[in-house]
Amino acid sequence: MNQPFRARAGDIASAAPHSTRDEWDNIASGYDRTNTVTQMWLGENALRRAQLRTGMRFLDVAAGSGALSIPAARMGAHVLAVDQSPAMLERLRARAAAEHLAIDTRVMNGEALEIEDAQFDLAGSQFGVMLFPDMPKGIREMARVVVPGGHVLMVAYGDPHRIDFIDFFVRAVASVRPGFEGPPTDPPPLPFQLQDPGKLEAELRSAGLQEVRVETITESTEFESGTALWEWIRWSNPIVGELLDELSISDAELPQIERTLEHLVRARAASRDRAVLSNPINIGLGMRAR
Fold this sequence. Notes:
- The structure is a single chain.
- This protein is α/β, with parallel strands linked by helices.
- The chain has a single domain (18-288), classed as Rossmann fold (3-Layer(aba) Sandwich), CATH 3.40.50.
- The chain contains 9 helices and 7 strands, in the order αβαβαββαβααβαααβ.
- It has helices at 18-49, 69-74, 86-98, 135-145, 164-174, 197-206, 226-234, 238-246, 254-269; strands spanning 57-61, 78-83, 103-107, 120-126, 146-157, 209-223, 275-288.
- The chain has a 7-stranded mixed sheet.
């Protein structure tokens, strides 16, 4: 950024519980290799909808390894990326350096941003704040740090029943655990707490934002094999490993899961080299009152 952001007086660096931070640190390398690169198209799409322009100050909350920050920097914004995971930010910095992009990074708890009020023109989060145990507080913090007339951008998964990779994953796990129907839905897991566009709109309004609008678009991702899809899924979120542990799935059973995914991917691909899996994405945008 042209000028360093200002921390709030008296704030002490804090992070989410170490177990959660450590879990994201542990998957950072795999996440960066598989998920980040496939989600940059979505990041750029969302930023263009938010009308990010050259010279704007942009805050990326729960930035991961840069699926939103990298496109923002490419578009000429002054970017600060914050995340609870040092390992994720390390990979973000490596991506930025490889493209000669200037991105500032800070290890920070998104539910208690160590940033003064009204510092950014746009604050955004892609698949980040939607995971917070106190998601409403995360949105309120984003609203607090944007300038009057600035905007908050939220990108979150839509209806999980329409997400192809979840359907494929459930069917693959059921090949070794017959009867498995997926994670519980009441209440929904954190990744899907904003699946309802109306819920996302209500949360943005509850944070005091105005001119709120939510659009649902379709994201598509291509996979050349069941193994590639399995790698993408297993590194996408710590919840995947936790679920496999709860089901007591052994290393000896993992090849069967991959074989099932391979069959599903090949069937979807048909005569093409790659299978296209799609899912709904809710993109919410609101403005802080002037």
